[in-house]
């Protein structure tokens, strides 16, 4: 699994890990049933503390993007598609908060509504094209 961390950035490392795992699931790179590396192994590969990876895994587990393995071996895996989390009010609130902040910054920088909308659609569509889905 390829994860790239920005250690100088504002986003905590555990959030970067979680975001990239979600992106991997959305892109179809991490398929249902795929077992993720142990927290210790991933931490070693990334040269960070295993507690950071544990925190990312716990967050993904709580949000339904990972499930614990119950076949006698330890580990986290990507759940079947029908068990993936759906839209929730919590997610929608979080999305609105982030978009509201970006829209305000865009307006302050002189970005038009049309430019902001085009940027959002382009990002969403680029993710869909990587997943092989079509827009409905």
TrEMBL record:
PROSITE patterns (UniProt xref): HTH_GNTR (PS50949)
Pfam family, one: GntR
Entry keywords, A to Z: DNA-binding, Transcription, Transcription regulation
GO molecular function: DNA binding; DNA-binding transcription factor activity
InterPro entries, per the entry: Tscrpt_reg_HTH_GntR (IPR000524), WH-like_DNA-bd_sf (IPR036388), WH_DNA-bd_sf (IPR036390)
Keyword Membrane: no
Stretches assigned to the HTH gntR-type domain: 11-81
PANTHER family assigned to the protein according to its UniProt record, in alphabetical order: GNTR-FAMILY TRANSCRIPTIONAL REGULATOR, HTH-TYPE TRANSCRIPTIONAL REPRESSOR YTRA
Protein name as it appears in the record: GntR family transcriptional regulator
Lineage: Bacteria, Bacillati, Bacillota, Bacilli, Bacillales
């Amino acid at each position: 699994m390829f994860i790239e961390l920005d250690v100088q950035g504002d986003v905590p490392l555990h959030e970067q890990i979680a975001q990239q795992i979600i992106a991997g699931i959305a892109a179809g790179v991490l398929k249902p049933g795929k077992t993720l590396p142990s927290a210790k192994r991933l931490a070693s590969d990334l040269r960070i503390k295993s507690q950071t990876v544990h925190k990312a895994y716990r967050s993904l587990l709580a949000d339904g993007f990972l499930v614990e393995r119950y076949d006698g071996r330890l580990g986290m895996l990507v759940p079947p598609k029908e068990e993936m989390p759906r839209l929730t009010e919590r997610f929608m609130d979080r999305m609105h908060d982030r978009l509201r902040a970006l829209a305000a910054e865009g307006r302050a920088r002189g970005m038009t509504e049309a430019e902001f909308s085009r940027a959002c659609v382009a990002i969403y569509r680029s993710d869909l094209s990587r997943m092989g889905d079509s827009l409905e």
